[in-house]
Amino acid sequence: GVNLMEFSDEILLHILSYVPCTDLVLNVRRTCRKLATLCLDKSLAHTVLLQKDYKVNKDKVKQLMRDIGKEIYQLNMAGCYWLPSSTIDHITRCKNLVKLNLSGCHVTSLRLSKMLSTLQHLRSLAIDVNPGFDASQLSSECKATLSRVSELKQTLYTPSYGVVPCCTSLEKLLLYFEILDRSREGFMLSGQLMVGESNVPHYQNLRIFYARLAPGYVNQEVVRLYLAVLSDRTPENLHAFLISAPGSFAETGATKNLLDSMARNVRLDALQLPKAWINGSGLLQHLKFNNPFYFSFSRCTLSGGHLIQRVINGGKDLKSLTSLNLSGCVHCLAPESLFRKAEDDIDSSILESLVVSCCNLRHLNLSAAHHHSSESIGNHLCQLLSRLKHLLSLALPVCSITDVAASVEKPPTTPNLVPQTFGRKVRIGIQTYPRNLGDQANQKIESSVFWALMGSLRFLETLEIIGSSFSSAMPRNEPAIRNSLPPCVRAQSVGDSEVAAISQLTYLQSLTLAQLPNILTGSGLVNIGLQCQHLRTLSLANLGMMGKVVYMSALMDMLKHCKCLRDLRLEQPYFCAGAQFFQALSHCSSLQRLCIVSRSGTLQSDAVMSFMANCLEVIMCHMFMGESLTVCKNLQQSIVRSFQAERPALNVVIFPLLHEDLTEVIRDVPMRHLDEITLFKSRVAEEPPNLWW
């Protein structure tokens, strides 16, 4: 036999690089002298990632900093919401720290001041600014450290400039606005900053400006204050300007001056603007681009003609573009939008120009729009997209993947209606989907355009197929939606066979399927479970008929094969989270986060408790069902009481979906879980790749 210790140090270091740093330092290095030396090697201790180490606690962090603090140059503790604020005190041991991410951690002004005063080499910082933050409590030593910081990511939960005015050398500024319009007591909040705060951020060296706004007028008021300085003097080296704002964010005189100044003085590599700033304006015609790598025109009324002429310059070579977000851009594949209906066929020549010019695209989002292909042979959207061999993530509307002939010949199904009483009944518990994968594939689609597309994108890691009229039952900051819009007519034929085609994606890691009306048995899910062994994130919403979960049997069979699955989100009316479902889910030994959203859905408390006891890695359980408030509260308390001590990061929310206090409950969910899984949204090309480490 081969002894592991006989391998060279280089090979052992490579193997050890896959082990969490806490395990290396606190466990592995105690096994033998050789590993004790290797585990403290600079290549392993240089970067410490704790952002999804849900087992780490205050004592482990303390011991880690004591043992290797001086060797750490990069420390990522993003989303460690369960650690007490006193944990931050131990970071002072990391004297050589250059990059620090504390997003989602509890940090007071005084603790931040004490910590930063000792980190003289810090150049990159990410923090949250919570109510009660007071910049006047920052010491002169802290401000000296901040003056050398060139990269800042700041998440705001209260109107404030945070530490931005202290950062006089900023080159990259990322701002996340999560300020609510009302306080917990119900009082309306103002976007005015605290008295005495400096209103002169230093942007002269800025290269990247990014702002993402949660819904709400206060967020818009505060971001305008940040932009006011930019409108006076645009940084000469600015090459990425990105503002992601939901809903309506009106353009003002100050923002118009800013955009005019950018058009005159800078050449951009990345651009994203609120739709009101682009719609109806000639802005894109005047902006200059250098070697663009990211564009987002999400929810804009930009036509395909303008896209080709003003952005791609009539077919200009854009090999540098790697990420493109056209989500909700309903006319982006049509020559003009003035007299066009959203459901009209696309102009394939526009998409072909896009594919030819942007041949190195890795991330493409075309969701939330009706992209209907014509009957022209060889010009189907799927056939054109198959030329993009470098794609790693892709988001498409359901109606875009159907074969034109199939959608015309096949009468539309009626998934929202209750099945007729007469006819052959299906016995409960009997598998009604094909068990032989070869037979399943041969049933319909080996010759379909979507099957061919999936076969050509062998290295795709993220796929989203979302109905163009789909909206989640649980939006942000609003009551739950009680009624959903019917699916597009072109999407009525998309079902099990199209899902089966996805199983060709051997390297698939994240899959989202929403509003596929012709799911009859869910048989394609079993194919995915067997073939896509790298699948880590699965989100299913409103599949098949709405009055019945027709794919439950296939889903349970699929889950038995998903050994790498970490995140599961299910949104389906009348979903029964019972003993059989949780028994199947228990096969997902790597599962960490579970979210179920179900209007009129039911659950079995004993089954949930048994599942939590069997799946030791689960640290998040969110269930928004049709059960009573009493049942939900009792189950939530039982889970917390039974498992919180063993799982410090445990976050449990079980609450009636249609309860009037749902929004108050949602605001207490850690942002990491809320943003990554609990709230439904398209995440492909949502922001530029590698925006933050």
Reconstruct the topology from this structure.
Blueprint: H1 9-16, H2 21-26, H3 33-38, H4 42-45, E1 47-49, H5 58-68, E2 74-76, E3 99-101, H6 109-116, E4 124-129, H7 140-148, E5 151-156, E6 172-177, E7 208-213, H8 217-232, E8 240-244, H9 253-265, E9 267-272, H10 275-278, H11 283-286, E10 288-296, H12 304-311, E11 323-325, H13 348-357, E12 363-365, H14 381-385, E13 393-397, H15 404-409, H16 437-442, H17 449-456, E14 462-466, H18 496-501, E15 510-514, H19 523-531, E16 537-541, H20 552-559, E17 567-571, E18 576-577, H21 579-585, E19 593-597, E20 602-603, H22 605-614, E21 620-625, H23 629-643, E22 651-656, H24 662-666, H25 671-678
Helix pairs in contact: 6-7, 8-9, 19-20, 20-21, 21-22, 22-23
Pfam families: F-box-like (PF12937), LRR_FBXL18 (PF19729)
Domain F-box: 1-48
Protein name: FXL18 protein
Overview of this structure, please?
With 693 residues, this protein is of the alpha/beta class. It has a domain at 287-401 and 448-475 and 484-573: Alpha-Beta Horseshoe (Leucine-rich repeat, LRR (right-handed beta-alpha superhelix)). The chain is built from 25 helices and 22 strands. The two termini are 41 Å apart. Residues 409-431 and 440-444 have low confidence and may be disordered.
